[in-house]
Write a structure and sequence with these properties.
By secondary structure, the protein is an alpha/beta fold. It folds into 2 domains: 146 residues, P-loop containing nucleotide triphosphate hydrolases (Rossmann fold); 65 residues, no CATH class. The chain is 33% helix and 25% strand. The protein has 7 helices and 10 strands. The strands form 2 sheets. Strands 6-7-8-3-9-10 form a 6-stranded mixed sheet, with helices on both faces. A 4-stranded antiparallel sheet has the order 2-1-4-5, covered by helices on one side. 38% of the residues are buried. The chain binds adenosine-5'-triphosphate. Keywords: ATP-binding, Cell cycle, Cell division, Cell membrane, Membrane, Nucleotide-binding. It is a peripheral membrane protein.
Length: 227
Amino acid sequence: MIIFENVSKRFPNGHVGLENINLHMARGEMAFLTGHSGAGKSTLLKLIMLMDRPSNGQVQVGGYRLSQLRRGQIPALRRNIGVVFQDHQLLFDRSVFDNVAIPLMVAGFDFDDIGRRVRAALDMVGLLDREKLNPLSLSGGERQRVGIARALVNRPAVLLADEPTGNLDPDLSADIMKRFEHFNQAGVTVLIATHDLDLVQRMGHRTIRLERGRLVTAGATTGEAVE
Ligand SMILES: Nc1ncnc2c1ncn2[C@@H]1O[C@H](COP(=O)(O)OP(=O)(O)OP(=O)(O)O)[C@@H](O)[C@H]1O
């Protein structure tokens, strides 16, 4: 589902963010991406979601070589990748409903369809009764769940999360991770960048570890060679 072949990322200032990464995540897999601050976790996620391009090597997602995508194919790829950020990036001048609806509005869904899909996504994260509220009136954990609903509303095949539990207490972090596990069981490929090694160990999924831009452990993937 996600393949990195000899991928390096050198920034314009000369800093090497990623060096010769070879990685294979199978469809339907769940993995954690770990490493110290500055190890390259966000850089790796940005290459998958096409927010940035590698300097060398190839990234493939869902069978597409990202370097060969035509401009017109990029929105379809992005719709297939849901992204959850640590600071959830919600709009505080819109309701919870509108925040979750944004990807569908951008994609041009009709009004009724948007209503159905937004409510289904809010239901999945247990926030159906909060749709009219402003995110400002929600707790940190609830805001994060709104961010997850927004990431899932397009029913993407891949869910990426960058430090999704960074500001949450251990119970809420465990709750959010359980939800990711649940989506994974429904077939979504899930990759989560996190510093929370206790949680990673407790959950027992594959761990992909970066150190100064290099892959030091890629863990195991079902039936396929890695690294
Ligand atoms: N646009 C950029 N220009 C120059 N250097 C950059 C750029 N983006 C990231 N870097 C550097 O690349 C390295 C990897 O950054 P990245 O954000 O991927 O790390 P990270 O593992 O996600 O860290 P954290 O856990 O702190 O979020 C860091 O040293 C960072 O300063």
